[in-house]
Amino acid sequence: MSEKIRIGVLGASGYTGSDLVRLAARHPGIEIAVLTANSHAGKPMKAVFRHFAHIDLPDLVKIEDADWGSVDAVFCGLPHGTTQAITRRIFSEHPHVKILDMSADFRLRDPATYKEWYGLDHVATDIQPEAVYGLTEVYRDAIAGARLVACPGCYPTAVLLALIPLAKAGLIDVSDIVIDAKSGVSGAGRGLKENVLFCEAGEGLSPYAVGKHRHMAEIEQEIGVAAGVADLRVNFTPHLIPMSRGELCTSYVRLQGGNTASDLRQALVETYASEPFVTVADPGVLPQTQMVRGSNYVVVNVVEDRIPGRAIVISTLDNLVKGSAGQAVQNFNVAYGLEETLGIEQLPLFP
Questions:
Q1: Which residues pair with 299 in a beta bridge?
Q2: What pLDDT sits at residue 319?
Q3: Structure confidence at residue 56 (pLDDT)
Q4: Which of 41, 68, 128, 290 has the smallest C-beta neighbourhood within 10 Å, fewest atoms?
Q5: CB burial class (10 A; 0-12, 13-18, 19+) of residue 206?
Q6: Distance, CA of 56 to CA of 45 (rounded, Å)
Q7: What CA–CA distance (Å, rounded) separates 71 from 119?
Q8: What phi, psi does 101 have (nearest 5°)?
Q9: Per-residue confidence (pLDDT) for residue 204, from 0 to 100
Q10: According to the model, what pLDDT value does residue 191 have?
Q11: Rounded distance, CA 131 to CA 109, Å?
């Protein structure tokens, strides 16, 4: 590749930001030019993450000291509520820059819905209409021409890739979806929190944000779009499992139109036959987090429920890769007309 695309990473000291750096460092089309981390400004990246000792990276700087005019694209790994204003400023001062946002700040199309779920006023409503929801397999064409890509959350990515084809084809009753989700503790971020301390999270399983997890809004938004249903509601309960990364979602659905679990599986097979990162497991093979760890892959399958008229759809991914940084790189590749798999071809790590 003759000329590399220069990128910056906002929030490079978080888990998603650091995994983005890990992937970008070996991407043949990327040059990492700017890394920000206000709490670690002035430090080399290897002082914050020891696994970067082998490579040469820019030192971390404060956001206000970053030179956004020197980059072509910015990956945002900041917490929700902090990305909108920065994105607005970058676009105003450097309109050529593309933003790939890994936070939740542009995922919800309606600013009122954003305020309802995040408790904050949307401060960039003028550019919200530009945001393309970055579920690559569903919005690939729109991403190709986008300046602002709102990469989905990890739970929505796993759930939506499993259920959108079924909802769109009218194979399931979208008013009766129950989702049981489990994620490794990296999904809670790198900040110190009592519930993710080793003695608190280890050797146990904990539900959290029951009935009110913010990713519900994304899931409802996108399944509603696929099915043509407004004001959709789903039942979604996440759980924290004592491992660093990985995610598994089990969705219980009601069949519609006389369809069977085999029909659902066949619809997924046909939908993802040419997709590089979504695998429908062989009949009877249950998706497991071990199948995707450290990779950009998603594995899905469908099992017949013993309750007549119902099926169980299981999906798994690595929450930091396909659930965040890997999907962001995938969207970057699409936005710049590169081979979609470039830099994210690594196979799952096992054991």
A1: 279, 316
A2: 96
A3: 96
A4: 290
A5: middle
A6: 9
A7: 32
A8: -95, 120
A9: 86
A10: 72
A11: 8
Q: Is the peptide bond before 351 cis (omega within 30 degrees of 0)?
A: yes
Q: Looking at this protein, which amino acid is placed at residue 216?
A: M
- Separation CA 63–CA 288 (nearest Å): 39
The catalytic residues are 154
Domain coordinates in residue numbering, the chain: 5-130, 155-319
Nearest CA among 306, 304, 314 for reference residue 263: 304
Residue 191 tokens read as 């900040």
Please list, in sequence order, all residues whose beta carbon lies within 8 angstroms of the beta carbon of residue 5, skipping any fewer than 6 positions away: 29, 30, 31, 72, 73, 336
User: Which three-class secondary structure state does DSSP give residue 237?
Assistant: strand
Q: Which two tokens stand for residue 244?
A: 């660093």
Q: Which CATH architecture has domain 5-130?
A: 3-Layer(aba) Sandwich (3.40)
155-319 carries CATH number 3.30.470.20: no
- What the block records as the tokens of 153 is 């959350």
Q: Secondary structure of the chain: what % helix, strand, coil (to 5)?
A: 35, 20, 40
d(CA 159, CA 84): 26
Q: By three-state DSSP, how is residue 248 classified?
A: strand
Q: What is the pLDDT of residue 1?
A: 52
Instruction: Provide the residue count of the chain.
Output: 351
3-class DSSP assignment, residue 291: helix
pLDDT averages per 10-residue partition of the chain, 351 residues: 89 95 98 95 94 96 95 95 95 96 97 96 97 98 97 97 98 98 84 77 88 95 97 96 94 97 98 98 97 98 97 98 98 98 97 89
Q: Transcribe 297-314 into DSSP letters.
A: -EEEEEEE-SSTTEEEEE
